[in-house]
Amino acid sequence: MNFADTEIILSVMQQNGFTSTSNIQSADLIFLNTCSIRENAEQKVRNRLEHLRGLKKKNPDIKIGVLGCMAERLKTKLIDEEKVVDLVVGPDAYRDLPNLLGEVDEGQKAINVFLSREETYADIEPVRLNSNGISAFISIMRGCDNMCSFCVVPYTRGRERSRDASSILNEAKDLFNKGFKEVTLLGQNVDSYKWKDESNGVVVNFAQLLSSVADINPQLRVRFTTSHPKDMTDEVLKTMAAHPNICKNIHLPAQSGNSAVLDRMNRTYDREWYLERIASIKRILGDDCSITTDTIAGFCGETEAEHQDTLSLMDIVQYDYAYMFAYSERPNTPAAKKLKDDVSEEVKKRRLQEIIQLQSKHSFERNKLAIGKTHEVLIEGFSKRSEDYLQGRNSQNKVVVFPKGQYEKGQYVEVLITDCTAGTLLGKSIN
Ligand code: SAH
Ligand code: SF4
Questions:
Q1: Which ligand is located closest to the Cα atom of residue 252?
Q2: Ligand 1 centroid to 37 CA: how many Å?
Q3: CATH number for the 374-429 domain, one of 2.40.50.140, 3.10.350.10, 1.10.10.60, 3.30.930.10?
Q4: Taking the model in full, what pTM does it have?
Q5: 151 C-alpha to center of ligand 1: Å?
Q6: Which residue puts its alpha carbon closest to atom 1 of ligand 1?
Q7: Residue 183 contacts by C-beta under 8 Å, 6 or more apart in sequence?
Q8: Ligand 2, from 189, 299, 327: best to mutate by most atoms within 8 Å of Cβ?
Q9: Taking the chain (431 residues) in consecutive chunks of 10 residues, what is each chunk's mean pLDDT?
């Protein structure tokens, strides 16, 4: 999400005569686009600011801006605490950047952390950053109206709002015309996407949006993230089944496998509901669809038995991949206000380690199932290790590495999988 936002920021800046550089020494303006989701994300930014302090000492004319969720969460406090910061701008205020820079030029500190109910940056064409020219993100909504008790997002990114469907379609068409072959539709809860065209009263839901993007061209792959288990509909799953170019991967974060923990997290579904959604994926998409998750270890009050339920859920679902975290209390969230962060750091770490170990076993086992099968791979470029090999992804979002042959970036190629690790499929192209 921040990556996509940075592309919007770059666009706003370019329209106002700024250019970007990859050499920090030659920059006279430095923006950090920040994340508040866990404490260590914020700590990284604090460390980076420490480093920038040195740079600014040598060159006092450099201006430094903190953008994104940390700006929104800390507001003026950030300017008070980090003297090196000139500019603090929240996620809904990027159009105001040129103005704010005007204030900075006059020698003031500038801040805009106004959260909007409407801003979706629908009309801004993102400037693609570090692009491979093949895959791009498209933000389809902003903010979040769920109140998961552990989560800071509703406070830093504001109310949920969906972006004009026609602007999303235009952006996807434009990318395809420029040679891109894959778009990922982004939102905190894509299943609650809803856009009403005021001119004719037609309402577009997520399944319909997905279908329209997929209809642009069969050569354009479509991915999306994140699906919320409480909202993911069979209509979306059926739309995936009906379009070969909608990639068969669902990121369905469980967070925990225990219903009491899920209740304390205010996820508004329980273990049974979650497993029913998994059964629905298998029913409609078969075993062809990869499933990934997010889990949090050591949430408030989590007992050993509750932790075991997360492991047993993982055993049942057999996730292809997972993003796994130790609970990190965020100030002013419902959990911070009402629940005790009472699982010790040591126990959190141990439980997280158990989750990571189990997941790596499952990832390896799931990958082994691909051996002997042929997968369509969209080539993204050379493999990390050698220019004699190419790498790309299959529909299930797994990295596939194979000898280069005559193939090039951006092509689709059929690859027979011959071997794997927990993280990568290895194979050879077949004609
Ligand atoms: N909207 C997405 C999640 C976005 S945040 C969803 O609802 O699934 C990405 C992930 O960060 C979450 O799924 C959660 O696993 C993790 N996360 C969020 N807040 C956290 C916290 N306070 N401590 C640890 N992990 C957290
Ligand atoms: Fe956070 Fe929950 Fe919204 Fe995801 S759905 S962004 S976890 S509040």
A1: 1
A2: 7
A3: 2.40.50.140
A4: 0.97
A5: 6
A6: 188
A7: 135, 136, 137, 138, 172, 175, 213, 220, 221, 222, 223
A8: 189
A9: 96 96 93 97 97 93 97 97 96 97 96 97 93 95 97 97 97 97 97 93 97 98 97 97 98 98 98 98 95 98 98 98 98 98 98 98 97 97 95 98 96 98 96 70
